[in-house]
Amino acid sequence: MAYPDSLDSHATSHATAPASGDAHEPLRGGFTSTRFVLVEPSHPGNVGAAARALKTMGFSRLVLVAPRVPQVHCDPEAVAMASGADDVLAAAHIVPTLADALAGVQWSLALTARTREYGPPPAAPRQAVQDACRQAVHGGDIALVFGNERTGLSNDDVERCSALAHIPANPAYSSLNLAQAVQVLSYELRLAYLGESAPAAALPAAGGAGGAAQPAAGSPLATSDDIERMYVHLENALIALEFLDPANPKKLMSRLRRLFARSGLEREEVNIVRGIAKHILLLKGKGEGRGENR
Questions:
Q1: What are the φ/ψ torsions at residue 263 (nearest 5 degrees)?
Q2: pLDDT at residue 21, as a whole number
Q3: Which domain of life is it from (predicted)?
Q4: Is 131 in the same domain as 41?
Q5: d(CA 176, CA 99)
Q6: Separation between Cα atoms, residue 89 and residue 50, nearest integer Å
Q7: Does residue 187 sit in the same domain as residue 235?
Q8: Measured between alpha carbons, how far is 244 from 251 in angstroms, rounded to an integer?
Q9: N or C, which end of the chain has less CB nearby within 10 Å?
Q10: What is the percentage of the chain residues whose pLDDT exceeds 70?
Q11: Do residues 270 and 230 lie in contact, with contact meaning Cβ atoms separated by under 8 Å?
Q12: Max alpha carbon distance in the chain (Å)?
């Protein structure tokens, strides 16, 4: 799957009419706790079309990471392609980094077309959104992350996310526009949230064959911020032990990220890892290390 730079500038002038009784469908549950994050989008039209895709599926939270056009939500092409989803476009939250976009998020899904050596194991969209449903029942925000039209997501961006999805398009022509990819994922997520797929509680756990293990009922999940601070703390401890050579890291932290991504980290588990790292640094006379008190 790829996001070509070209965008058909001729938006359709009509939309599918809502079913009877759905015109004022209330947003609830996962619909209000799910963020759709576009990382460094290049084309204003794609941003507007993505806003339209979200609104048609009942979502409204759009986050833009360092868009090429800084005030893209006001761009005429974006407004035209939003085609009635001007409210979603105007409310888009613009942030400088993916870390800012994921602040407070407890689970995130990266969409990518490329096979990655490191990072979470990939899943098809339908399986991935089932995982999203399981996470949503624990409360807190989740995020779906989409990359730049030309280059997609960087390896660092992928490693920052909890899970990975790939749209299994026609291998002979797998080119998907960014907004089309957003439409596919938002559609699948809508079905899952509305229970037209199997109810989340009845779905089989995704652990075992590469999926993330599910936390016990009532166990709060760690947020993206908590997990990133844990990685900084752990990396400093491994350096203090001389187990990790910062001049020649050999992808050690990438491998550890992949390992932890499969585990579905709970907040208490993150605290345990950080407690171990803290004591290693104290024993090595390094104090708390760089940034570990936050």
A1: -95, -15
A2: 40
A3: Bacteria
A4: yes
A5: 26
A6: 9
A7: no
A8: 10
A9: C
A10: 77
A11: yes
A12: 68
Do the Cβ atoms of 157 and 112 come closer than 8 Å? no
pLDDT digits (tens, 9 = 90+) for 12-39: 333 443 433 444 454 456 899 999 999 9
Could you tell me the CATH number of the domain that includes residue 260? Answer: 1.10.8.590
Least confident segment among 132-141, 192-201, 262-271 = 192-201
Note whether 167 and 238 are same-domain residues.
no
Residue 101 lies in a domain: yes
Lowest mean pLDDT among 8-17, 45-54, 172-181: 8-17
Domain count, the chain: 2
Query: What is the structure's pLDDT at 199?
Result: 42
Instruction: Judge contact between 108 and 145, C-beta under 8 A.
Output: yes
Q: How far is CA 258 from CA 145, 205, 255, in A?
A: 17, 18, 5
Instruction: Give yes or no: residues 168 and 256 share one domain.
Output: no
Q: Does one domain contain both 40 and 147?
A: yes
Domain that holds residue 95: 30-194
Q: CA distances (Å), 281 to each of 35, 131, 245, 265, in order?
A: 36, 36, 16, 22
**Assigned domain for 60 exists:** yes
Q: Residue 217: what pLDDT?
A: 52
Q: Which residues contact 171 (CB under 8 A, 6 or more apart)?
A: none
Please tell me the number of Cα atoms within 13 Å of 102 on its side-chain side: 26
pLDDT-derived band at 9 (thresholds 50, 70, 90) equals very low
Mean pLDDT of the chain: 80
pTM of the model: 0.71
Query: What angle in degrees, to the nearest 10, is found between the helix axes of 224-240 and 267-283?
Result: 20
